[in-house]
Amino acid sequence: MKSFLTALVLLLPAIGFSALAQTATPDPSNAPPRQNLSALQQIAEQFIKVQTTGLSGTVNATVEPVDSRLSLAACPSPQAFLPNGGRLWGKTTIGIKCTAPSPWTIYVRATVQVVAEYIVTATPLAQGQTIGPNDITKIKGDLSNLPSGIITDAAQAIGRTASISLAAGAPLRQDILRANRVVQQGQSVRIVSVGPGFQIATEGRALNNASEGQIAQARTPAGQVVSGVARAGGIIEINY
Question: Less packed terminus of the chain by CB within 10 Å, N or C?
Answer without folding.
Answer: N
